[in-house]
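Backbone description:
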Amino acid sequence: MIGTLLIANRGEIALRIVRAARELGIRSVMVHSEADINTMAVQLADEAHCIGGARASESYLDIDAVLGAACASGADAVHPGYGFLSESAEFARRVTEAGLIFVGPDASIIERMGNKAMARNTAIAAGVPVVPGSQGSLATLEEALEVAEEVGYPLMIKASAGGGGRGIRIANTPDELTTLFPQARGEAEACFGNGDVYLERFIGSARHIEVQILGDGVRAVHLFERECSLQRRRQKIFEESPSPALDAATREQLCQSAVALAEYVNYFGAGTLEYLYDDMTGECFFIEMNTRIQVEHPITEMVTGIDLVREMLLMAGGQPLRLHQSEIILNGWAVEMRINAEDPARQFFPCPGEVKGLRWPTGPGIRIESGLYPGYRVPPYYDSLVAKLVVWDTSRAMVLRRALQALEEFQLEGFITTASLHQRLLQDPEVAAGRFDTQFLERWLALPAERTATEVAA
């Protein structure tokens, strides 16, 4: 059993973990940057340590500083949250070498499944279908051009160590591949400290669907899927569970393939397997695995009633996976709307500022994940996500109506957010009908605002 847990993250996910630890009687320790001294997570944790400057490289990405705080606080476990060091095999290994528990898979699994190119090869070995592409990372442009001739255009250039849509380019011709290949490598190196990239055929009309799994190193279960196709620049904006595109047979096939792959690698902890789903053919292709908790995990919790962070902590503390597949029931529908400090009317320009007034929506099926409070100033140094508005109801039609009502109740004074974007999306007939793919939001945003709610279906 874990006695003291150090949380190596910030924002709403740090607050989420602090609360889960408290419910289990675990003492929580926050690390934070100089810019984050006033966050709610720091205030609610049992102990907090400032580990460096505002820049992530000076604090949240500094392994020595995080481990120094863990040792000073007497922590016996570290939860990495998502982002920052959560998928760093080096960090997981250093935590273990320091005699601490890493709340997640061990370093060898992160290397194998967190590296997107290696994960593709593992999925192929496990018999899980993947998008046609290169066999592993490509070191040179010449190699990329040779593979491209075999796979065909258009192609996606993807960072092997990537995530969050970073380090991705789409090439339609050999000339574009020649230009974009070094750009993708450069961005991958800057974002992840690893410039390796690989190629996949670009499927333009696909949906992005992911399956949540839990594993204890021997056995794994799935907690159904999430639909994440509404993305801007490959950044998820609006998620729901289950997917409106899948019938029961396809859902079962997709989820069982995720369990098979998780058990093939003896996966430990919470993980997500991401797929592309082709509406036209009904085909599913594995694309990558995230070896950590996801931003959008609350919608899975809302439709299954299972606390994923609690299960992570219990397994990390030594308990075997206590869930059996037959016990996990899909109940109702849930959506998550990411509230970012950005102005949708100005190309999503960042708008951090001080919270001068705040009213959260309340009522049945409403869940808020946020560290905002009146007087709090959002720092400009990090991701623009400031809240997740999560809504549950008995059906998709009802949850969309409840979500719109929740947005109408939500009031935030002090800076602009993406709440207005969600209000428009929820009134769009195509979104209401569940007819969209990963390119939908970009096309929709290109339309004049007054048309998007009334003419898209025409």
